[in-house]
């Protein structure tokens, strides 16, 4: 608008993270300009080592941080007396109702677990992802963790890439990821972070009663556990609220689903 003043800080591109001086352990650096929880300090085995990108962007506006209010996890289907078909509002699942219930319940479990909420600089995407994998019966041993606990996110992602070559997992696109999640299949959304800590989340079935992801969002939906916890779209860009930044300065978001 011709006579509207621009209230953004001078010299700041509204859709590029500012070149802040890195703080301790990556806090408030250019890669995470609005993060109060870095996730860059690995905690004890099974904690930390993940890096959720939690930026919310309004079209035509400068970057603003996501309010951080978790979307309420979907109600456990068994406890709510819902059927798998009644839980799905915008995409009906083709898979078994039992698989869908199991996936939703496992995701509800990790999103509501107080021990997986961010604490100081420690976040828990890796531990949450392993728990969902175990609960839903997908291959995880030596890929996402071992008998001692979960691996950190970057190691999980490297192992999933090797598992794809071994034909234990396959790479799918975002649309396929949402379709599979709607069928009760466990799909991992991943973004590595060379020199830091990546992020892993599981794709959430669409339309689960009780979910309220911030709009507009891009599918697939994620059951996110990290610097923020709740159901969110996967992509954080100029037009969407979400989890992962995906541009020339960030590695690609890759989705892995069981090959069988």
Detailed description of the structure:
The longest helix is centred in the middle third of the chain and has 16 residues, at 97-112. Helix 3 (97-112) runs antiparallel to helix 4. The protein has six helices and ten strands. It has one domain (33-57, 70-258): endopeptidase fold (from Nostoc punctiforme). The protein is globular. 22% of the residues lie in helices and 13% in strands. Strand 3 (145-146) and strand 4 form a beta hairpin. With 260 residues, it is of the alpha+beta class. It has a six-stranded antiparallel β-sheet with strand order 5-10-6-7-8-9.
Fold blueprint:
Elements: E1 55-56, E2 64-65, H1 77-80, H2 84-87, H3 97-112, H4 125-136, E3 145-146, E4 149-150, H5 153-165, E5 169-172, H6 174-182, E6 188-191, E7 199-204, E8 221-224, E9 230-233, E10 254-258
Antiparallel strand pairs: 1-2, 3-4, 5-10, 6-7, 6-10, 7-8, 8-9
Task: Write a compact overview of the structure shown.
The chain contains six helices and ten strands, in the order E-E-H-H-H-H-E-E-H-E-H-E-E-E-E-E. The protein is of the alpha+beta class.
Key terms:
single chain, 260 residues, alpha+beta, endopeptidase fold (from Nostoc punctiforme), six-stranded antiparallel sheet, two-stranded antiparallel ribbon, 13% strand, globular, disordered N terminus
CATH homologous superfamily grouping: endopeptidase domain like (from Nostoc punctiforme)
Which of globular, elongated, flat, extended, rod-shaped describes the shape? globular
What's the total number of strands?
Answer: 10
Mean pLDDT: 75
The appropriate CATH architecture is: Alpha-Beta Complex
Strand line-up across the major sheet? 5-10-6-7-8-9
Order of helices and strands: EEHHHHEEHEHEEEEE
Please indicate the percent range of residues in DSSP E strands (runs of 2 or more): 5-15%
Low-confidence stretches: 1-94
CATH topology name: endopeptidase fold (from Nostoc punctiforme)
What share of residues is helical? 10-25%
CATH class: Alpha Beta
Compute the number of structural domains: 1
Main beta sheet: 6 strands, antiparallel
How many helical elements? 6
In terms of structural class, how would the helical and strand content be classed? alpha+beta
End-to-end C-alpha gap: 54 Å
Radius of gyration: 18 Å
Assembly type: single chain
